[in-house]
Amino acid sequence: MSDFLNALNQLLWGNGLLLLLLVTGIFCLCAGCDFRALRLLWKKPPKTNQTHALSPFAASTASLAAAMGTGNIAGVATALTLGGAGAVFWMWVAALVGMALIYAENVLGCRYREGELCGAMAYLQKGLDSPGLAKVFALCCVLASLGMGNMAQTNTMAQTLSAAFGTPELLTGTAAALLTAAVLLGGAKRVGQFTQAVIPILSCAYLLAALWVIVSHREHLGNAFLSIFRDAFGFSEIGGGIGGAAVSIGIRRGIFSNEAGLGSSSILHGDADGTPEQLGAYAMCEVFLDTIVCCTLTALAILCTGVLGSGEDGGALVFAAFSQTMGRGAAFFLPPVVALFALCTLIGWGYCGGKAFAVLTKGRYLHMFRLLFCAAAVLGAVMELELVWTLADIANAGMMYCNLPALLLLSPACGHIRKD
Fold this sequence. Notes:
Helix content is 77%, strand content 0%. It is an all-alpha fold.
């Protein structure tokens, strides 16, 4: 069974999905994405007959909570290890594509939302007139929330704090479950309040620390950028085609760091005030902050300190880079930051999973799902997760295979939505 699931996972996440992502993103960029919508960021949402629980900013922090986290730290280090410095350039390309994808998702999700039905599930059901596909997406979203968005996060949190401070893994899992329950059981408004308070401070703390590392090794900054562009367009990378290490890994890491194309962002904006274009503009900024800012600073910190190629990988490589400047302080700074990012991701995905579960059950048993979600957090902290990761990857692929064709069909309408 395990071999079958691994083979299915490799098939679903092959170059076919990467090509579908790129084609859909380029199509959305040409047909539906309007960068002029960014000017709406400074305008107040218009008054309408409907009121929603979140402001656009609160919804954006919730969306960043789900996307921005451990993957932007350890994931970038892994991309550099496997794809070289050139992977960073292709992450930038992926960010441009991702901004178009996420704009289309949020504009369409806002256009078709109705009551509890929002996000990709709304435009699949009402835009494509396919309730069955909307339910398949919702089921995949629930599974992904329990796997990648929950158990994988608490496992990372528990392993990080255990290695740094000797914190018992069960204690970490229990604390994460209780904190998540306290936020999720308060509904969308409390989720927004929590992420609005935590995400800006947490993100600024990490980004300032990364900048400190870069500035401390600024004499190597020019060489770092030179290696990014040289390796991105080197003969060996381009010669490998789309499967070349820098191209393939950079695009995958860039797209998947911000979750553009997954459909989760439009769910998190489902309870936000604002016009379709305004919510789409906020979502584009999320991709920019997630990939262009956070991933780039992480990569430059690694490249400027010269730790790439030291034999370390993932979080250990980032720790080695930060230790070059922060010394022993890195051991007290990075583990709590990683743990808090994981907790924010846990809460963001808990909200996503709850909205999807409500679609499957017509709004019933939502508190039961939230309690189950919190219980899964405890299990994730203490168990091996190889099978969970595989199932979560399959669920994520399922969300994309439902969402991307819908964007291809519906995104041309993004430029012709009524002004609310």
